[in-house]
Amino acid sequence: MRLFDRILWLTTVPGKLVGWLVLPLIVAVCLTVLAAKLGLNAFVHWGTSLPVLGTGITVNTLADLQWYFFALMSVFGGVYAFLADRHVSVDVVSSHFSERTRLWVRIFGDLVFVLPFCLIITWYGIAFTMTSFASGEGSTYGGLLDRWLIKACIPLGFGLLALAALVRAIKTLQMLFGSGPLEQEQIQ
Questions:
Q1: What pTM did the predictor assign?
Q2: In whole angstroms, what is the distance from residue 114 CA to residue 129 CA?
Q3: How far apart are CA 169 and CA 161, in angstroms?
């Protein structure tokens, strides 16, 4: 059980970390609004091209950063929400089930719905990322470069969610067939 607990904890670490991106997201939104009001386009410009940022920070860079931050929070935060049981679920029906039945439904959902969906997204997400990398895809309007980096978070995040679903299903089976009491475990 300790190994499984450790794996589940590790799958939530990125979600906990990217939660802090809400602060730079707020700053990026405020700077974008301020720049629009003042008629500014470029904030900082340097001579040489840097990875991801290019040759400077513009309003378009901030616009790209906003959706990058939001994407990271959604993908990795989703894994954390899944394991902390803070995701959307249909409790109207399951609230009438016994604890044992709820656990069986959870195993079924994890193995039949979550796991295959995540594996498909991970599989196609890798090809999606590789195409972006091979083509050197970047912003077409002067925003961020190296778009493959953000696209790589799709298979990574869904891979973590697949691992989390599999491990949670195994742990739930152990709860059902173990000798201890049935109890819902929450991720700290």
A1: 0.86
A2: 22
A3: 12
